[in-house]
Amino acid sequence: MKIYFDRNVFGDIKTLVETSASPEVLQTLKAAIDRGSIEILLSPTVIEETFPTIALSKRNLNKEFQLIFDLVLKGRIIKTPQVLLAEAVQSYALGHKLPDMLTKIHRKVVRALKEGRDSEKIAEKFITLARNDKENFSSVFANVRRFGEAYNVDAPMNFQELWKKSSLERAGSLAASFNLYESCKKLGFEGLLEAKAVKLHTLYCLSWIYSKWFGEQGVPGKIGTGDFGDLLHSVQATAADVFVTNEKRLPLWLKRVPVDGFDVINLNELIDRIT
Description:
Elements: E1 2-5, H1 7-18, H2 24-34, E2 39-41, H3 44-50, H4 58-71, E3 76-78, H5 81-94, E4 102-104, H6 107-115, H7 119-151, H8 159-177, H9 181-187, H10 189-193, H11 196-215, H12 227-236, E5 242-244, H13 249-254, E6 263-265, H14 267-274
Parallel strand pairs: 1-2, 1-5, 5-6
Antiparallel strand pairs: 3-4
């Protein structure tokens, strides 16, 4: 079973171990990894979001990376969200097999992160990757916000109504962003929407619209601090069977419509499953 942790889960595990609140959590995870029950996948976003812990101390940063690399699949990392979405759309449009969603991570990079060598140089690389992703996805949020404003005139009764009215349009918009709108339209946006990365991306975007305009109180359409990161994690979770997050909204948002072979749970639920 392939597992994806967002950054906060790694932080929660470290806290549980260091405070002796629940040190057996780490032991349970390692035992499941050793017997081949689970593989925990790493993403560029997790690495990028870990670097701010250097504000506490360089030693703390090293300990964070030591924990992460002790748990994750060795030598492999999930591709960036933009690449995952591009490959999903291209594979559907061109009738190609979906490429491997993982790529190599060099041993020298792993060793340097664990030992704290050249961390500034490596940090710059991953922060640049993250900045590029956020720039790419800023247009997504701008597009989604305009979409929400249009629907705000005639608010849907529930999320399912919004999904029924809008999911194919959102999938088409994603295809257009990769210049493959006409190819995907000929094949049908219904099929494109079944691509896991596309479906999770669409689920997050429409849940964001529904939450910001119709489901939660607050400023309509305002982008929250963690919205970019949550979108990136949601897309990168495509590579896994189970997305583990202690965020309360993500399980609700990403389970509003079934995604075949995919679940979203919290850390306690994962430990119960693998114990």
